[in-house]
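User: Predict the structure for this protein chain, please.
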Amino acid sequence: MTISNDKETLRKIFKDKRRSLSKAEVKSRSREINQNFISNLLPRIYNNEKNFAKIFSLYLSSYNEVSTDFISNYFEENDIKFSYPKIIKKDHHLDFIISEPNQTFSPSLFFPKILEPNSINSGNSENNGKVLPDILIIPLLSFDSNLSRLGMGGGFFDRTIGFLKKENPNLLTIGLAYDYQRFGGFLKTED
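Assistant: Here is the predicted structure, written as structure tokens:
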């Protein structure tokens, strides 16, 4: 079996597990994961004045991914800058649109079940709201004890992380996952 086949098998297993969660389970578990992030991790990475200029990126959950709704509400209430990813074209890194009050979202041109931010057209926004985030909060299907991540297979976040690390070697990535998404072995990351 090749590494690609192994990955596809694991993707199917973890997609099926995630698909089996009820909406109530997703909401309850997401709230717990979000609160853990806000109470325990956020103070470690966003705890002094020089960090207040940092921009986070959240994702809009789909397919029963851990929701980031509670984090986004917390960020809005505490004036923490954040953005959302947007697919501009396939086989390319993601763009990021800064979140503003009354932000609107539309289905992705490439994946209609995924919502993406509309570009910002207000007079005070440069580049239609495009930014380069310093801290990425991303979804995943599985992770291992080495903190390797298995995504959906499109490579968007992998390409984006590579691109952003060239711009900012201190880029921080944080994956949100349910406890069952921890893989007992090691995820092979080469293709």
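The longest strand covers residues 82-86.
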